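The freezer alarm interrupted the setup, so I double-checked each line after restarting. Inputs confirmed:
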Amino acid sequence: MSLDVLVSHLYIFVLATFVGLLVIRRVSPLLHTPLMSLTNAISAIAVVGSIVVAGKEESTLSTVLGTAAVAASMINIVGGYLITYRMLVMFKKHKQVK
Amino acid sequence: MGIDHWIQLVYVLSAVCFILALHWLSSVPTARRGVITGVVGMVLAVGGTLLRPEVAHYQWIAVAFVIGTVIGIPMAMMPMTAVPQRTALSHAFGALAAALVGTAEYFLRAGHQGMDRFTMGALTLEVILGFLTFTASLMATGKLQEILPQRPITYRGQNVVNLGILGAAAAIAVVLVIHPGSHSLFLLMAALALTFGVLLIVPIGGADMPTVISLLNSYAGLSAAAMGFVLNNKLLIIAGSLDGSSGLILSIIMCKAMNRSFANVLFGAFGQVSGAVAETGEKKTYRSASAEEAAGILLNASSVVVVPGYGMAAAQAQHKVRELYDALSRNGVNVRFAIHPVAGRMPGHMNVLLAEANIPYDALVDLDEANSELPQADVALVIGANDVTNPAARHDTGSPIYGMPIIDTDKARTVMVIKRSMNPGFAGVDNELYYLDRTLMLFGDAKSFVGELVKEVQAQGGQHAA
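Predicted 3D structure, all chains:
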């Protein structure tokens, strides 16, 4: 990673953090639990790095660690999206309940 | 345009999906669309990655997909009362993935070209954050599941020891950036981070869990973002920082709702039974009432504000509370639920429990709305909440909870508190609400007492109608 690359990554990091702060500030407190389970599923994006490490099979150690990382990320992807959806189905308005 | 460029394009689309997913999550009518969009983003990210030329072998990835799915599905089917510990556990998995990838990258690349100082710096950050979040989240899971004691455990010099361990890990990181080749130093750094994670949670009490879970959420995201710096992957940086900022906002909201700072939450060991509680020995008097009397008052009210807290979740009383809501609504009583931001063990915990019990979300109001309604309310019914209703937070500068925004239950005409006994709550602070003239204590287990209230309301309500 050259200094140029580092700087461009920092730009992305800072801008994405601002987008995150602005978007998430608008989330209703009603939905803070689903918010946390959704962002948890999104942060399972670590799966991208895990797949590369597991799939290039450069050494036994890296393949074992990569495979474990893919499994851990997959738990969060499957579990995170599914439970968020389950929670949101429970939120009903007055008329729908009766 | 080669395959690499197409994959980058897919990654851009994936990043757009994640931002839209969070945007649509902001309100209930669009929230489900948000989740679907998030799934699309993840499918794009995984699909694009599988097509990368350096991914040459698929058998272990396939095995890991199966394992992850087999564990992930039951984790999504847990009951809503278990959501705080489930969330903490999933933070542990997310952080573990980042830490393991960092470790693998280190052993593959350290000492070779491609491991320059910037990359090594990002890698140490990824590994330290990943491992400490992993053990801290496991500890939080244990405390929330009540495998570990919920009371904070403190000892002399605790903060010095903890900060010393973190400082040592950071110092090793600096050495590694200059001399990346020392494998044993790397392992020592990982061990220190793992240890720090455990010790960080030891002094945390149950009432501080909402803040700590949010903070761990943020750390898990930041370690994924650091991984993006190491692997030169912009999608990882974007998704990781979205998660990082979400956790940060939630922790700030939680801290504000308790009028405390991060440092105070992490190092203050709130919730020990402190000596300050022992007040002047005078016996204060309170009034109690039976379910029958309480039901009569509720039926004569035109508006009731229910204040649920962790006690309601612990007693699994939410379904009985729904029955009470139905019975009172049928008798023309307007029932609303006032939700304090830190009620329960994670942000939004009460909302999810009440929604699960089929209480419409338009009956749930936040702190500000509740406080504007309470002066006109006939009854405030407190179920399993304590510190968030204590009027001492408004005026008693000596109280540990002074300055914390509270739900002004004492402004309602009558206050009813369902409670097991007169023991103080998590903060170890006596609640002066219980000794007001307008307050009636309803002693019993939340679930069974609300059940009795339902029966009484149904019986007496019938007479009213007749």
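Quick read of the result. Chain B touches chain A through 115 residues (CB under 8 Å).
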